[in-house]
Design goal:
The chain is mainly alpha-helical. The protein has six helices and no strands.
Amino acid sequence: MSERFAKKWEERRDEQNFTERVKEAVRPPGPLKPRLDMAVRRIELQVQKLDQAGERFSQRDKSIFARIVDAYTKHDTARANVFANELAEIRKMEKMIMHARLALEQITLRLRTVSELGDVVSTLGPAVGVLRAVKSGMANIFPEAERELGQIGNLLSGIIVDAGQSTGTTINFETANEDAQKILTEAAAVAEQKVKEKFPELPAGIPSVPLGEKTPTETS
């Protein structure tokens, strides 16, 4: 019986060879899928860390804002201005964190939709561009996040190379850069709006906190 089974298995495998080759040509082969999933998990972990950092800055924001109000009610404008400058720096970092988080979320959503091998190069190209931009913005705030995002970018670049070799697809850098810039621009606009909605305005007479400045995570 084992011989008959072996013979049928070989016959069936021969019949499936062509079908399997076709399937492998249009979907990520085994080795790429686990690597892609690992990249997504690592990006999601960085999003969680950004959330934790954002909460710490938010608490600091509330504390400084309370001090500004206290100084203002005591007519100590000089002290209020000092705290206002400190608050401006904090809110700038909060905006950068929110911007980075939103951009990384967009990347994970895109990576999770990759179902065909041909999509890998076109999807991961912009993702790598976004990671590089976010990485540069995190350099002065979270060196650990900067290193991790750099490693994730390298992982995705390796997947792009392997996918390109398997399909003969080459990355269109101009399109990838435009797509990455679009993701970053949209994330920046949403981040700025969220910061404005989340944090209260300063009392009249105190210099307003600038929120419209270009963040390091935005590419030129």
